[in-house]
């Protein structure tokens, strides 16, 4: 996607995204309001608009291709043995089990597909799941589809509010535990004129047990700085069987991903891939962990009282 391109007379454009002038203006309204409120409320460490365009808007947009390239398997009811078989098939043959480093050259991705060992394992796992569900294992683009998306721990609305602007067909829920941030988000949405966004004030542990939200979304996304095992327990309960959980991560998520194997299995998830995204930090190119929900999350998860963070699965 690259950096935003700006001029003196018009809002910047974001290469790779065909955003209309009205959408670009919505993004500018959001940034202006966020930076203004940030003077009296701790929303972001960024103070300059140019940096906010890159770090907040462009970085959020970079996750959209990852979501839209996900395999669109319509997964029916699956037996525990099928889930276990698919998950074990991936982990036993993938480079995560062998503790190989994750890099541009060996990272399983949508572009590389079945060319890597991990990619072959992921395709085999998807095929195993799809066989029982009566569906085809190949990937189908989700671009242009009306998805329900929940942004867990959205903070100042990132990436969810950016998703809502760039993809008007998506129904986006912004979940946050702080009332002040939720009030900020509601006002920002009003100023931007968005109609496809809902703000929910709740802890993820509580909302994940609420029938209104539990397993009610096609996609859950998290940009929060937390361990993968913790995020998995907070996010996967929101995802429908067959849906995706996408977690934004730094350049070297290998150890976290390998360590999350048991947690993902307990929560009904199977790792699809770790993708390079068009976003960079001082440490290198950022990544996104993509997990497929293949079975219902057991009723005891997510646990309450801060246990996902204090005692990860």
Task: Report what the structure shows.
With 313 residues, the chain is an alpha/beta fold. It has helices at 21-37, 49-61, 64-68, 80-93, 117-133, 160-166, 179-192, 204-207, 228-235, 254-259, 261-267, 307-310, and strands spanning 148-152, 171-176, 197-201, 217-222, 239-249, 269-281, 284-293. Strands 3-2-1-4-5-7-6 form a seven-stranded mixed sheet, with helices on both faces. Helix 1 (21-37) packs antiparallel against helix 7 and helix 4 (80-93) packs antiparallel against helix 5 (117-133). The longest helix is centred in the first third of the chain and has 17 residues, at 21-37. The protein is globular, with a radius of gyration of 19 Å. Residues 71-80, 90-123 and 129-139 have low confidence and may be disordered.
Secondary-structure map with pairings?
Layout lengths: L20 H17 L11 H13 L2 H5 L11 H14 L23 H17 L14 E5 L7 H7 L4 E6 L2 H14 L4 E5 L2 H4 L9 E6 L5 H8 L3 E11 L4 H6 L1 H7 L1 E13 L2 E10 L13 H4 L3
Parallel strand pairs: 1-2, 1-4, 2-3, 4-5
Antiparallel strand pairs: 5-7, 6-7
Helix pairs in contact: 1-2, 1-7, 2-6, 4-5
Features:
313 residues; seven-stranded mixed sheet; single chain; 12 helices; alpha/beta; 18% strand; globular
Point out poorly predicted stretches: 71-80, 90-123, 129-139
Rg, nearest Å: 19 Å
Major sheet attributes = 7 strands, mixed
> What percentage of the residues does DSSP assign to strands (E)?
15-25%
Q: Please, what is the average pLDDT?
A: 81
Short description:
The chain is α/β, with parallel strands linked by helices.
């Amino acid at each position: 996607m690259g950096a935003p391109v700006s001029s003196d007379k018009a809002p910047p454009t974001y290469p790779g995204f065909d955003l209309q002038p009205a959408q670009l203006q919505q993004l500018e309204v959001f940034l202006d309001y966020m930076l203004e409120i940030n003077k009296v409320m701790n929303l972001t460490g960024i103070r300059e608009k140019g940096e906010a365009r890159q770090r907040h808007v462009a970085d959020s947009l970079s996750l959209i291709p990852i979501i839209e390239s996900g395999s669109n398997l319509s997964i029916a009811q699956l037996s525990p043995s099928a889930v276990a078989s698919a998950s074990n098939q991936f982990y036993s043959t993938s480079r995560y089990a062998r503790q190989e480093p994750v890099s541009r050259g060996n990272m399983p991705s949508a572009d590389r597909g079945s060319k890597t060992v991990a990619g072959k394992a992921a395709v085999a796992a998807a095929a195993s799941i799809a066989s029982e569900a009566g569906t085809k294992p190949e990937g189908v683009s989700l671009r242009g589809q009306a998805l329900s998306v929940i942004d867990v721990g959205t903070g100042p609305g990132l990436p969810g509010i950016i998703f809502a602007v760039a993809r008007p067909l998506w129904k986006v829920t912004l979940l946050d535990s702080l009332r002040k941030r939720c009030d900020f988000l509601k006002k920002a949405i009003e100023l931007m004129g968005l109609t496809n966004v809902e703000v929910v004030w709740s802890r993820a542990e509580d909302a994940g047990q609420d029938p209104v939200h539990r397993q009610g979304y096609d996609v859950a996304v998290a940009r929060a700085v937390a361990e993968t095992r913790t995020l998995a327990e907070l996010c996967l309960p929101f995802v429908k069987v067959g849906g995706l959980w996408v977690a934004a991560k730094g350049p070297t998520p290998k150890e976290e991903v390998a360590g999350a194997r048991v947690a993902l299995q307990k929560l009904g998830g199977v790792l699809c891939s770790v993708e390079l995204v068009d976003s960079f930090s001082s440490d290198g190119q950022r990544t996104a962990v993509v997990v497929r929900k293949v079975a219902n999350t057991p009723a005891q998860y997510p646990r309450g009282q801060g246990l996902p963070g204090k005692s990860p699965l």
